[in-house]
Amino acid sequence: MKQLRVEADHPYSVHIGAGAFELLADSYRSLLDKADRIVVIADERVAELHLPYLLEFLADWDIRVLTVPAGESAKSVETYMACHSFLLSENCSRDSLLLAFGGGATGDVAGFVASTFMRGIPFIQLPTTILAHDSAVGGKTAINHELGKNMIGTFYQPKAVLYDSKLLGTLPPGEVRSGMAEVIKHAFISNEEWLEELLAIRDFNKMTDEDLNRHLEKGIAVKAAIVEEDEFEGGVRKYLNFGHTLAHALEGHLGYGKVTHGEAVVLGMAYALLLSDHDKLDRFIQWSSANGYPLYLLREIQFADLLPYMKKDKKSSRGALNFVLLERTGMPFVEQVQEQRANAAYEKLVLQIGDVI
Ligand SMILES: NC(=O)c1ccc[n+]([C@@H]2O[C@H](COP(=O)([O-])OP(=O)(O)OC[C@H]3O[C@@H](n4cnc5c(N)ncnc54)[C@H](O)[C@@H]3O)[C@@H](O)[C@H]2O)c1
Ligand SMILES: [Zn+2]
Q1: Element (H, E) at 78
Q2: Of 39, 84, 269, 326, whose CA is between 20 and 30 Å from 58?
Q3: Residues 135 and 204 occupy one common structural domain
Q4: 28 and 138 co-located in one domain
């Protein structure tokens, strides 16, 4: 098992590997013993598949479990309130402990609940998706407002992240693609050699558990280093948004849930690579196509459909479009791009994709 330390405002460890939950009754025993109540907030689907497995490691304690809707629909005011109601009805106090069991969506809502219940109680992240290597580290919590995604939330670090890779085997292909998109994003903004290794993958199913764990460790290390430098997103944390300006526009235009987040991010990265004049664009398009990312969507969607969303993007200021681009692999920077150039780049990408798929 691997351990990484995140030196945030409140430092904590991330443990990655098969059997990471064993640490609940080991290194984290005193944290659990100290709690007057222990509540698991679990994604419904994850609970169906894996709750008995988790509870085996928690046999020494009296555990209450609340399931929340699977995936993104959990990030609602209703679920947020339902969590608080549950905690109150279970007589939880400031000495209670929350365990967030699920993907990024569950982690985001459960983290937000932990940060606000009685002004904040401790919580542990138990991520169950590949994408959550990203979301479980860094302390951003959120729910969605009908006017925008992640509009209500806090910065609040967990006490620990236990990433038990045994659970990743049940992820559907779209979720594997989604998570691997953020993995390769972390490579693009940090490390050429690792990027090359990832670009050689033509079928995610052929990755061994060891390979996947190693990629997750590397991704977490990149994320943790950036969070340590810029916990509250004043500077370098923006680089984590590589590929995200277009991705958010695609998600907004298509309606959330049509494509997974990471699938949209891959399209956004292809676009950012073109704007960056990056020499790996062709290979990245081939990689995306081989691994089943929906590049064809770019042929179906007009730039004009995406523009309003990009103008509204949190990173865009006063209507200008801001993109995270790459000077080269490992050297991200933010550039303001004029509408006309952005449009031309989009058309060029559509043509380039047409040659491949
Ligand atoms: N806080 C952050 O810094 C941060 C960073 C990136 C993304 N996010 C958020 O993360 C969310 C996306 O997270 P996600 O991609 O992990 O998806 P998710 O939590 O929405 O889960 C996706 C689907 O996979 C299912 N699932 C989860 N684990 C499974 C398993 N082991 N086996 C089978 N099915 C499983 C879920 O039930 C759900 O249907 C978004 O809401 C995004 O905003 C947050
Ligand atoms: Zn993302």
Answers
A1: helix 77-89
A2: 84
A3: no
A4: yes
129 and 240 in a single domain? The answer is no
pLDDT tens for the chain, 357 residues: list them. Answer: 999 999 988 999 999 999 999 999 999 999 999 999 999 999 999 999 999 999 999 999 999 999 999 999 999 999 999 999 999 999 999 999 999 999 999 999 999 999 999 999 999 999 999 999 999 999 999 999 988 889 999 999 999 999 999 999 999 999 999 999 999 999 999 999 999 999 999 999 999 999 999 999 999 999 999 999 888 888 889 999 999 999 999 998 998 778 999 999 999 999 999 999 999 999 999 999 999 999 999 999 999 999 999 988 765 566 679 999 999 999 999 999 999 999 999 999 999 998 777
* Residue spans of alpha helices (H) in 152-238: 173-188, 192-199, 209-229
* Residue 218 annotated in active site: no
pTM beyond 0.90: yes
User: Tokens 């929350």 map to which residue?
Assistant: 98
Identify whether residues 291 and 187 lie together within a single domain.
Answer: yes
Would residue 48 show up in a list of annotated catalytic residues for this protein?
Answer: no
CA 101-15-116 angle, to 5 degrees, is: 45
Both 143 and 207 in one domain: the answer is no
Residue 225 tokens, joined: 């280093």
Domain limits for position 153: 2-170
**Domain stops at, among 132, 150, 170:** 170
Q: Which of 133, 177, 215, 261 is catalytic?
A: 261
Q: How many domains does the chain have?
A: 2
Catalytic site includes residue 50: no
Statement to judge: residues 126 and 182 lie in one domain: no
Q: Locate 228 and state its tokens.
A: 């340590």
Query: Which residue from 182, 292, 320, 318 is spatially nearest to 247, judged by alpha carbons?
Result: 182
**CATH number of the domain where residue 123 is located:** 3.40.50.1970
CA gap 218, 164 in Å, rounded: 16
Cα separation, 151 vs 317, in Å, equals 17
